[in-house]
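# nightly structure sweep
# worker-07 picked up a monomer target from the shared queue
# config: single-sequence mode, recycle default, output format = structure tokens
# input follows
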Amino acid sequence: MRYLNKRNRAILREMVSTDFKVRYQGSALGYLWSVLKPLFLFAILYFVLTAVFGIGKSIPHYPVYLLLGVVAWNFFTEATVVGASSVVSHGDLIRKISIPRYLVVIASSVSALINLALSLLVVVILALFNGLRPEVGWLMVPVIFLELFVFAVAIAFILSAAYVKYRDVSYIWEIILQAGFYASAILFPLQKVSPEGQKWFFLNPIVQMIQDIRYFGATHESVTLWSKFHGLYMLYPFVVILMVSCIAWVYFKKQSKFFAENI
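# output follows
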């Protein structure tokens, strides 16, 4: 493994900058779309869930609670979807320049991280308007997003390596993401689910991260893994992330030897 030396850091910065510019090239609103997309989704969901179904009325600061879930899920989706095609989309660069293959995947994920930072500014503004005041717990939100970033990058490594040989991977992953959106307790408060049902939800490691983000960023009434369960079960999400990360790196490193000839 070649670490991020000065040359590789420069390449990474250039790739991130180029990717971010190209993504919104020709768009009238440009970078604003990185904020508007999750806001539009949030507005639609908030209206339907509160006005139509009456969900969330008993949850303190429910608008912030919901928006944090939407922002977290959008970040995971963007990092993995863009990451899945990153190697193929940078095929010319990989064939022409000798660079560590993992840089193209990391660059796409960092671009998603920039969009996340812009979205979180909107979350902070909404939180202040919703009556929340800055507290020490807010400092935990970026830490948990870092955990989500690591998991998203690991998934992106697996998808990008598989996508080089099997283009169907992107379609399969989109279906999985659609199911995952509903299986991540984004649309409804997890406290309305029975304790046994909550245990099943927490088998999805993303649920642990989203609920922790909501706990520290919106309301302490958010159900968290560590507040409901004890013992080895609490380690489950972290073990999953560690295993997926190890598998991702081994698989990506093995397949990267054949990228140039298969792209």
